[in-house]
Every structure is written in C-alpha cells, then in structure tokens.
Amino acid sequence: MYYIKNITQNKFDHSNVYLSFNGGKDSVVAFHLYRIASHEFSTDKKGCELQAVYFKDPSANEFSEITSFIHAITSKYGVNLRVVEDKWERGVKSFENSSFILGSRSMDEGCADLKPLEAGNAGDFEFYRINPILNWTYGDIWDFLLYFQLEYCPLYDQGYTSIGTVDDTLPNPYLKSGDTYLPAYKLTQWEHERCSRVKQ
C-alpha cells in the first residue's frame, strides 16, 4: 500500500495513474491496495480520484461474470472506470504520459524478470508499469481476499483458479469434488493454478 503511494506520489502526476483492471483475483488485490493508498493521497492532494481502465478485447469471448463484476465493484467504490474496446497493446496508446498499476505476479507467464517499476513501450509510445504484488503467491492472494472479506468474481467459487476467456478457461481439475468443484481458495497445490487454462 505505502509502496504504491510513495512511488506514484513522488514520480508521477496522480491524474495520469490508472489501475489496469481486468476483474481477476490478482487485479482485485491491486485494486484494493490502490484504493487504500488513494485515501492517503486525498489528504495530500485535494480532489484525488481513483481511476481504472478495462482493456476489453472486442474479439475475445469474455465471461459475462467478469464484465459484470468489473462494473459492479468499480461502481460500489466510486471508481472512475474507463472501458477501452481494444487489446492492451493498442489500447494503451490512448493514454499518453500515463502509468498503470497492474496485478502481475512474478510466476505469471512472461513476468519472471519484471521489476516493481518498469518502463514499457508500445511501438513509439512509452509508459510505466507499477507492479505492487510481484512477489505474492497464490496463497497470499487468497489470504488477503478472505481475511478482509473482499468481493471477487463468483467464477472463483465454481472452481476456476485462473480466468481467461470462455474459450480457454475451465474449472480446475485439481478442485473437482464429486460432481462439482471446490472454490479456488481451496487449491493447496499452487503450482496447478493455471490448470484452469486450456491450451489452444
């Protein structure tokens, strides 16, 4: 929480800092960390507002539960949500001189070498990624959400542990219990988190 506050306050104009929010469990943790940190901002900078952006790939078959959750949770907490109907790589170009708080973890594909603050680019367009939960484990994510009784997408209670699109995501077979599936937080073998994903 304080890391997010300090790094955004000292390096960036808060009006150009966005939470990249996709409704997944990791993103929800980043959402609440930034939401808490924003209260600290409001005592220092009058009128501080939390901003989120949802990059919605129009070609992807998204879960309706994810889309509904994104709108419900941002509305509940009064977050200014901007929906960009494009993939991240193209959509980010509409945010000049901006920085994005992400829910990336080092165990995620392509994230092993990420640093807490990363300069990124999309062609000639440059931006910053802020990664506050890089070193969190799957267990850490669920400990945080459950301890503070925070809402998350209901798909996780149906056995989904890593959510992509309808076409590449299934309940995790390691959570199968008879004819149903246990909730995602019941997974004890964290290395099987992505067994919810179907290889295309």
Automatic annotation (TrEMBL):
<keyword id="KW-0808">Transferase</keyword>
<comment type="pathway">
    <text>Cofactor biosynthesis; FAD biosynthesis; FAD from FMN: step 1/1.</text>
</comment>
<protein>
    <recommendedName>
        <fullName>FAD synthase</fullName>
        <ecNumber>2.7.7.2</ecNumber>
    </recommendedName>
</protein>
<keyword id="KW-0274">FAD</keyword>
<feature type="domain" description="Phosphoadenosine phosphosulphate reductase">
    <location>
        <begin position="93"/>
        <end position="170"/>
    </location>
</feature>
<dbReference type="GO" id="GO:0006747">
    <property type="term" value="P:FAD biosynthetic process"/>
</dbReference>
<dbReference type="GO" id="GO:0003919">
    <property type="term" value="F:FMN adenylyltransferase activity"/>
</dbReference>
<keyword id="KW-0288">FMN</keyword>
<keyword id="KW-0067">ATP-binding</keyword>
<feature type="domain" description="Phosphoadenosine phosphosulphate reductase">
    <location>
        <begin position="17"/>
        <end position="87"/>
    </location>
</feature>
<keyword id="KW-0285">Flavoprotein</keyword>
<keyword id="KW-0547">Nucleotide-binding</keyword>
<dbReference type="InterPro" id="IPR014729">
    <property type="entry name" value="Rossmann-like_a/b/a_fold"/>
</dbReference>
<dbReference type="Pfam" id="PF01507">
    <property type="entry name" value="PAPS_reduct"/>
</dbReference>
<dbReference type="InterPro" id="IPR002500">
    <property type="entry name" value="PAPS_reduct_dom"/>
</dbReference>
<dbReference type="GO" id="GO:0005524">
    <property type="term" value="F:ATP binding"/>
</dbReference>
<keyword id="KW-0548">Nucleotidyltransferase</keyword>
